[in-house]
Amino acid sequence: MTVDAQGGDQDGGTRPGLMLMFDRGQRPDRAAVAAALATIPRAVVSHDPAQADPAHHVADPPQRAAAGEDWLELLADGLTFDLLGLSPGPGLSAPEVAYRYNCDIDSLLDSEAIALVPGPHIAQGTHALPIIRTLLGLGAALTDAIEGVQTVCWPVARTAIAPRFFARTVDAWLGGGPFPALGMLGFDFDEQGGLRSEGLRFFIGCELAIDPAACRDRLAATRLAVRIVQELVGYQRPDGPQEFTTEGGEVFTLEPDLPMGLLKLRPA
Fold first, then answer.
1. N or C: which end of the chain has fewer CB within 10 A?
2. Which residues of the chain have pLDDT under 70?
3. Closest CA to 109 of 96, 118, 119, 90
4. Is residue 14 helix, strand or coil?
5. What is the pLDDT of residue 65?
């Protein structure tokens, strides 16, 4: 299968999106998607290539062309998204995973996926927060409504997430709660003991790097990273050093290093 929904920008026709993983042979078909959409307010099928004039496909982007007729265009909150890899056509293969949240990634070895990606008309604005919010919200609704979703993958950050955990944290964010950093981002410690994010660049153009001096307690450092991310996603990225004080009274300096593509956090 040549359809690609891996993370990244518009390189070679690739559009970053969510991947819903299923046991082999258990992916939904058009009828299953239609039944799921009947339970999701404000989301409908806006284009079905199986029922369209073949001439429509001439201008389709590479992902749509590779998918043949085994995809649907969905309209949610005025934005269009493509749902690729539907049965009975071939599914998408599992993406690379480096971080897992409440799930077992061993099952991905015998899985296949469908992918929800921004439609061609909004692809250039993929990083815009309204599009991201609608994409994740629709993905969460589909995860709840389609039977058999085993894992949700976000290739932008190489993460795999338990379906219920993904839907619950995304719904909480859309309802005014915290950004679902544990799922939409990966966190790892480098050889010096510092913490680095993976996937934050997609949202704000930089990754977060926490100085090793603030990472002696790794669990506390991860919590600090999640707390910092809440201050970054959806807000203007700092263009100079800023002071950040935790609820416990610890003071840090957050400073951009744009040539390195980083926001560096260190004790003040």
1. C
2. 1-14, 52-68
3. 96
4. coil
5. 53
- Per residue in 97-125, pLDDT (tens digit) is 999 999 987 778 889 999 999 999 898 88
* Amino acid at position 101, single letter: Y
Torsion region of 199: left, alpha or beta (phi above 0 gives left; psi -120 to 50 gives alpha): left
pLDDT of residue 58: 41
Whether residue 210 contacts residue 217, with contact meaning beta carbons closer than 8 Å, is answered with: no
pLDDT reported for residue 53? 57
Structure tokens at 166: 């993904």
d(CA 143, CA 223): 27
Q: How far is CA 56 from the centre of its chain?
A: 29
Tokens coding 172? 């909480």
Q: What are phi and psi of 58, to 5 degrees?
A: -55, -40
Q: Are 117 and 134 in contact (CB under 8 A)?
A: no
- Asked if 256 and 247 count as a contact pair (C-beta separation under 8 A), the reply is no
If we measure between CA atoms, which residue out of 105, 100, 88, 82 comes closest to residue 16? 82
**Distance separating alpha carbons of residues 112 and 11, to the nearest angstrom:** 23
- Cβ atoms 19, 115 nearer than 8 A: yes
Q: Which pLDDT belongs to residue 14?
A: 59
Residues sharing a CB contact under 8 Å with residue 220, sequence separation 6 or more, in sequence order: none
Q: What is the pTM of this model?
A: 0.89
**In angstroms, rounded to a whole number, what is the distance separating the alpha carbons of residues 114 and 36?**
14
